[in-house]
Amino acid sequence: MTDHTAISHVFDVDQQTFEADVLQASMTTPILVDFWATWCEPCKVLGPMLEKLASEYNGAFRLGKVDVDSEQELAGMFGIKSIPTVMLVKDGQVLDGFAGALPEGQLREFLSRHLQPLKGSASSDALDEQEVETAEQAINRLQQAIATTPDKAELKLDLALALMRAGQADAAEAELGALPANLATDARAVRLRSELDLAHALQGAPDLVALQQAVAADPADWAARDQLGVRLLLEGDAEGGLEQFLTILQKARDWNDGQAKKRLLAAFATLDDADLVGRSRRRMASMLF
């Protein structure tokens, strides 16, 4: 394995150290896990960029390196099908991830969705000086990049994500459906698919106030409560949305072929709040078993 002892924010991970150095350590500091191999050319491009960013973020996250040739069982536990693959572990759970050697700008965008550089770090200073790219700007940039390099499939996944952030669900779904098989199972693609499933549930649905009134008038109106849960979730009240699905699960678990459980699993795949997801998972499990 590569010796990272001189770099405090980068370390090697193996089967024996994974529990303590990744899962337990992520309860206090997020861990970015890089699955790589010495023969992998894209890994040689991505690895140094990740190490550079770990240094810039100055302790906001740590980078754990897994050599898949040496740690085949550990790679198998995560279902690694291609390398490089990177996963972000926070509060003991995989929060997000991606496959392939992303350009540095997209790496920074990925990190910025989940992490804030510590004050005084190089990335913190850079963020103070730079404007955040809007979803529309990202769409334009990615469309131009795809026109230049149409065979670079990972750009199409990035475009699908940018379209979803811009509220263009149909366009995002079209891009998602056109992804090659190796990217269709990427953690970001799975998350986007869950977001699209939830967005489809609101097609033709009443607004938030009307749904709240319908549930207040008839607490057993499961269809209205289901739509209320989805709307709350997508409008930023994740806890309120999950509560609606949990209520349906508790009172009418078999309603609409067990839809409440399906909604909860889709919601868990889209949320970054590991504590809320963990609490809700435990409540769901107590109702089901």
Question: Could you describe the 3D structure shown?
Answer:
The protein is built from 15 helices and 5 strands. It is α/β, with parallel strands linked by helices. The protein folds into 3 domains: 10-129, 3-Layer(aba) Sandwich (Glutaredoxin), CATH 3.40.30; 135-185, no CATH class; 208-288, Serine Threonine Protein Phosphatase 5, Tetratricopeptide repeat. A 5-stranded mixed β-sheet has the order 1-3-2-4-5, with helices on both faces. Helix 2 links the parallel strand 2 and strand 3 (62-67). Helix 13 (238-252) packs antiparallel against helix 14. It is globular, with a radius of gyration of 21 Å. The termini are far apart.
Describe this structure in a few short sentences.
This protein is an alpha/beta fold. The chain has 15 helices and five strands.
